Amino acid sequence: MKEIFIIGVGLIGGSMANDMRRIYSESKISGIDNKAEHLSRAIELGIIDEAASMADIRRADLVILAIPVDSTVEILPQILDRIGDEALVIDVGSTKEDICEVVKDHPKRRNFLATHPIAGTEFSGPEAAIEGLFRGKTNIICEVEETAFKLQEAALDIFRELGMRIRYMKPKAHDRHIAYVSHLSHISSFMLGKTVIEKEKNERDIFDMAGSGFESTVRLAKSSPDMWTPIFRQNKTNVIETLNEYICNLENFKKLMEQEDFDGVYSEMKNTNYIKKILKGIE
Amino acid sequence: MKEIFIIGVGLIGGSMANDMRRIYSESKISGIDNKAEHLSRAIELGIIDEAASMADIRRADLVILAIPVDSTVEILPQILDRIGDEALVIDVGSTKEDICEVVKDHPKRRNFLATHPIAGTEFSGPEAAIEGLFRGKTNIICEVEETAFKLQEAALDIFRELGMRIRYMKPKAHDRHIAYVSHLSHISSFMLGKTVIEKEKNERDIFDMAGSGFESTVRLAKSSPDMWTPIFRQNKTNVIETLNEYICNLENFKKLMEQEDFDGVYSEMKNTNYIKKILKGIE
User: Domain A174-280, what fold?
Assistant: First the structure.
């Protein structure tokens, strides 16, 4: 890995670059980003060695694509057009179906590995990049069999060095499950934030009365709309399904309250307490 | 404060007892709880000195009532019936209107102070009690003018020692605002947990795919139904109103997605990002 290119030097790309620096200390790390200030900031922070352009991609041994998923769909084929025969291209987007679809007939499909590292924070930009972000986290790999053996192996070496555990899924299954465990959480958080902001015009009152519970449930409402709008667009069908079910559960809870069926309210909560056991696996 | 009685030796009562021990090292701390195992556990953990019964309350200088709010409404008048003329009784319940209402004509009303410390975790029972839980947190005091001057002063001394900042509100306003910043968060979290559990029968898949974002949004779904059912019952009207607005915002978000209005989806998130600024005040 002499030449590593990071496309999108934000939270995920920047954190990847930090880890690549540690693993491949001899490598040159170049950054590509449509925001010039992100590139100069990433150089200042020592995340990348230099700024590059798409024309330089032909020199790449490894390309990590960490940009919004609509841009990935647009840029990924262009990257595959430009790379050499031995190069490995990895994307880290939060959707997988459209991304795999757009390159399925590309002559360089075997140079590409579709992944989704389940890691991140609610912050964005190169300043948000941290070391060890991926340690102990899950990386979901899709359509592994479409990637050349040698490049599968190279990618797995990288993920092992990052400290990630690997799960293999089909793109369709990935997008359906992730809608529940990630995309819906973001919408519930954004809409909770909206509901409270609309009501509580006096913001001083909000934070005087709000505790750590509120902070925890609305944390994701700080997330970047630039990143999330394309995710919701690409995963529209699944996300709408999760929203229907979520709204239906909320309506049901409300109905129980309206009917003063507080045994029902109790059961709803008691049954969901089971989440404790599940969350033990995450913490 | 020679004799302190803690009624309900769980997360809040137990944490209060821990702080009382530090502030009033000479005091005897007695516990009353309808769960015998909570009392013996609290004694083992050094949270209380001994178990007591309602008949002993007459000796109390300070009574802290930290039980579910339906029990508070039932027990508070009985406590006021039994205490001496100089005793201070404080409740720490998450609703205030019904609690203030039930004692408004009690001859010992002036011995009572209605408070809501905005502090806690999703855990419960004496094991959940921690030191310093209240430091830097807000305590909302309701109807302060109904409490005797000398006892107001004694209570404020305690809260200052606990490191709390004080806000004064009317019970009705407290219940309306807290429905938004606390009660709704709990329901959104419980129903999010329910939606995911229903869908993801294979729990191993949930926690392999779920990241810290999901963990954060469903954290409150671990909360105690015994504590929360009576809160929702007492604050029914306000909570139903917040649920209506929350569901309406979710429906609107879904409609934007169905209409493929992703500029609209972007704006919804962008406008709510403003929550960052508000949350700075909480963190």
Answer: 6-phosphogluconate dehydrogenase C-terminal fold (1.10.3660)
